[in-house]
Amino acid sequence: MKLSLNTTVPSVRIRNLTHLPINPSRSFVLYWMTAFRRTQSNFALQRAVEIAQQIQKPLVILEALRCNYRWASHRFHRFVLEGMVDNATNTQRSNALYVAYVEPESQNGSGLIEHFSSHAAAVVSDDFPCFFHPAMYERFASRLMCSVELVDSNTILPMRAMDRTFSVAHSYRRAMQKEIAQGLPQFPEANPLNNLVVPKLKSLPPSLLQHWPLWVGEDASQKISNLSLDALPIDKEVAPTEEKGGPIQGALVTNRFFTSRLSNYSESRNEPEQAGSSWLSPYLHFGHVSPHTLFERLVDACEWSPAKLGKPNGKMTGFWNMNQNAEAFLDQLITWREIGFNMCSREKNYDRFESLPDWAQKTLEQHELDERPNVYSLEEFDQAKTHDPLWNAAQIQLRREGRIHNYLRMLWGKKILHWTASPRQALKIMIELNNKYALDGRDPNSYSGIFWVLGRYDRAWGPERPIFGKIRYMTSESTQSKFHVKQYIKQYS
Ligand SMILES: Cc1cc2nc3c(=O)[nH]c(=O)nc-3n(C[C@H](O)[C@H](O)[C@H](O)COP(=O)(O)OP(=O)(O)OC[C@H]3O[C@@H](n4cnc5c(N)ncnc54)[C@H](O)[C@@H]3O)c2cc1C
User: Fold this and answer.
1) Beta carbon of 458 within 6 Å of any ligand 1 atom
2) Which atom of ligand 1 is nearest to the CA of 257?
3) Which residue numbers in the chain have pLDDT < 50?
4) Ligand 1 pocket check for 453: Cβ under 6 Å
5) Is 431 in the pocket of ligand 1 (CB under 6 A)?
């Protein structure tokens, strides 16, 4: 069956991984949920539903959680598991069969997807462009003996809509606006499972159930809720935060933003003590909230329609013709968030020093041997043992709560560059600490933010300084004028 037949998903969002035909003689269609961990506004699930519907086969949704990925910890497992309970419950109301797999020990999951796919007419999965996902897709491309499609539901503008990467945000913004001016990209269906009119699979093939501890259908949510994290070989020092995970909590956080924070967003998002930003990044990262849903909420809040679109101007305001707060939020959600997906989907080396623009590499290398006022090890940074109480407070917040406000996050990164032996070492430390502790880490945004510290998406600044060269400089002292640092340091000491 050809890819383009009867699809409601834009073809630019679909990648055919194995180039094998759909095989309707097999038992079911498999949606292997790995990144868009939600049942609503999800192009990948929509694609799996339409294949199942067209060949009239049951749909199985497999949501798996491995234990041996880098930085696996109680914090991230808890967040994902809370989402799995929501997804198991939401699937109950449909004709799809939900299957949860939580890998109990390292390597237990070997062969699971191969085995599932040997029963599947087709496999659909999520096309996430960073962390372990791209290497995993490459591995499976030669191992899975059926049609496998990867679907992009990451972004509002499809992440492969552009044929190049961008060195600064304003050139991405301009190109994005040009694309959108030709027509707002298609949105996913809000509830794709409502379209599923196929027989419901009662159970899985016994060979699957014998080999792996799979939690199926009605039982799944109870089993997931009862799971003890202590039994798993994951980092328990990185403990769960008070932030609950999952699409249900993601919807509550979304509501909070639209009812009480959006109206002052453009002013208060940069003020750390005001809690003025959305705090949606962990839910966006784990796919518990869809960017399309956020855009639709903005449309409702502003009574907006595409007829209001202005001419592309490359600026943060005046293109969407929404109000000032909505435009400020859209600039984060579409320009700053999506430029990272554009980068990771096109540049294999997105996490390497060499992916920095030439001017940034050159200036950092020219200043590599400059004397540092302080040099700390990874452990000292990790334990918040620097001389600077503000930096330590930010690190303590990251360890304790899994987040730092954006403004402090910039300072946090700039000081790591300032206080390490080399820019390459600073990069390593930022990646390690951000991805180990941040709920929203291991994301294209993580690499946008960390590499921004080193000059990506920025320009050269003067005067040229020791260590930083022409890279933008920030100090704890300048931050003190921004907000009540004393109170913050007291809270996180
Ligand atoms: C050193 C450093 C590391 C960072 N690491 C991460 C990370 O691991 N994960 C992460 O999601 N963001 C990261 N950022 C970007 C930014 O700090 C967070 O996206 C933002 O603080 C999330 O808070 P919010 O959801 O309240 O944002 P809001 O202001 O409410 O913005 C809405 C959404 O837009 C996106 N967004 C906002 N600011 C940025 C930005 N500067 N760059 C890219 N996308 C943005 C996020 O998806 C965010 O949830 C990092 C920034 C720096 C300087």
Assistant:
1) no
2) 30
3) 1-4
4) yes
5) no
pLDDT of residue 483: 77
Compute the distance from residue 457 Cα to the ligand 1 centre, in Å: 14
Distance from residue 280's CA to the centre of ligand 1 (Å) = 9
Give CA–CA dist 66/48, Å, rounded.
Answer: 22
Q: How much is the pLDDT for 481?
A: 74
Determine the residue of 254, 281, 334 to mutate for testing ligand 1's pocket, defined as the one with the most ligand atoms within 8 A of the Cβ atom: 281
pLDDT at residue 2, rounded to an integer: 46
Nearest to 297 by CA among 265, 275, 340: 265
Quote the crossing angle between the two packed helices 219-226 and 74-92, to the nearest 10°. Answer: 160
Give residue 274's pLDDT: 65
336 close to ligand 1 (CB < 6 Angstrom): yes
Which residue lies with its CA nearest to atom 49 of ligand 1? 281
So what's the pLDDT on residue 46? 98
Is the CB of 280 inside a 6 Å radius of any atom of ligand 1? yes
Q: Is any ligand 1 atom within 6 A of the Cβ of residue 269? A: yes
Q: What is the pLDDT of residue 6?
A: 80
Residue with tokens 């623009």: 357
- The pLDDT tens digits for 124-148 are 999 999 999 999 999 999 999 999 9
Cβ–ligand 1 distance for 191 under 6 Å, the answer no
pLDDT for the residue numbered 477? 82
d(CA 22, CA 54): 11
Q: What is the pLDDT of residue 283?
A: 98
Q: Which residue, by CA, sits nearest to atom 46 of ligand 1?
A: 281
Q: Could you read off the pLDDT of 236-256 as tens digits, one per residue?
A: 999 999 999 999 999 999 999
Strands 120-126 and 59-65: unpaired
277 CA distance to ligand 1 centroid (A)?
10
410 lines ligand 1 (CB under 6 A): yes
- Mutation test of ligand 1: which of 406, 414, 446 has the most ligand atoms closer than 8 Å to its C-beta? 406
Report the alpha-carbon distance of residue 437 to residue 395 in Å, rounded.
9
Enumerate domains of the chain plus CATH numbers.
247-346 (1.25.40.80), 353-491 (1.10.579.10)
